[in-house]
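Morning. Coffee machine broken again, so started the prediction first thing and wrote up yesterday's gels while waiting. Chain of 521 residues, entered below exactly as on the submission form.
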Amino acid sequence: MTLALARPTRMGADATGVVASSLATKLGPKSVAMSGVCAGNPKDVSLGDVIVAELAYNYEEGKATTAGFSADPRQQPLRDSLVRFAQNLDARTIPSYGPPTLSDRELWFLEVLDRNVDPRKHPARSRYIADGDWPQFVQALIARELIRNQKSTFKITAKGRTRVKDAALLNVASPDCLPLKIHVGPIASGASVNKTGNAWEMIVERGLRSALGLEMEAAVIANIAYRLEIPDWIVVKGVMDYADPDKDDRYKEFAARASAEVLLRILFREGAATGQQAEKETLSAMSAANVEKRFPRLLEALRGMGSQWVQLLKSVQQAEMQALQKSGEATRLAQRASDLLVGEVEEVRSSFVDNEDPKRRGILTTSEQSSSGKHLGFIRWSSGDEFFGEHVNGVAQGLGEYKIYTITDFSTPNLINYYSGEVRNNAIGKFGVYVFADRSVFSGEWLDNHPAYGYKFFDGERFGYLEFFGAFASVPDPDRKAPNQWLPHGIGIGISHETNELLYGHFVGGYPGRTVEYVAL
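Came back before lunch.
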């Protein structure tokens, strides 16, 4: 692929349109694309999130009379295969993605509340505050008098509002990383920067209630592609503000950088077939293999507890090593299957949008075989879950990668978890790596489609430790209101980063049992 880069000297459709159209006329490209920043709908997105334009239009097109304004915009849609690719992009593969700091979480909560939006119902809530951390987090804000509980809802206090204003004044640097999400939806374009505070009500009045972004150039990029018969257009914008009177440039640099990273992923078609890049980055930082380097006194402490605990650690490290080896082989096969089936996969995905039969599935196979003699292919269940890798007669068998989805209210897939490693009869096992939506990771041995023995680090210390080495089980919900959870259950070792302590003994449903002992590291 050859890229031609250009930058208009001013923002807006006039300056952008001249540069883009002249380059397109001279070069005859297959695609015209743009990254940059926009305002985001505060009910749907968070600052730093990235929006891929599903369609673009000029919300100011229409007719103004004494009776008012009658909107008549011409909408340009993005090609469906690009929409689906963008929907499948894993935000964790974006360099600007990262877990929020405690300050990020606090500021996110207060800024949302300051806009009279309930943080509990905000779609970004789980990215900033996990379910298990919610009660303690909220109680800490109440204790510090940043918020108060009023009639079963939260209200920001004067002290909390001062915290928000101070952040805008004192935090001049843009964030290095955030738990961003990639959204795919409409972007509306206009001729002016909007900071009236009523922009989103105006957009709804003019006919498109689902617009996620508001800026000045997307419509002209899409229109140039349409008028000049360029096959594709792509516009990706990062959310830097909410088009309100309090808008500032604090998130501008981050939003611009993140949007460019996502645009490059789309142009080079990277990051959707597998999540292995994010997985490798995560595991390189936290793993059983390097725990002795991260905690130099660990082995000494384990020897003091007895040789069986040293042996337990070594056996977990061995299980992790086997899981990582199988995961690497599976990812290579999955990527090969994806490369061979580019284009065809989209047709199978499309055919299952309205299918409610959980037993039916879409299957694509290649003529290529792996070294074990199994065919490489793609399987999609009507639940939305997908598999790339080895299969026998349409049954996942051998090595491959699962992508596990939920379906949103808009009937679009939302990637939540993925697995790479060994598979048997469409189930997980025996060795492999599972990456959860909160970016916690289990690597080790599997039994009956659930973790059995290995290593996991969690997204927080809600059980009193961050890392665990040992036995796992599929634990039923005590109230039988939720699915079984994969939790530490049995003999094992935990490490708390907050208290710098080692926990060893018998764990029950994730929690340290009565026999668990604590040793300072």
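Residues 276-520 form one domain. Going to sketch it on the whiteboard this afternoon.
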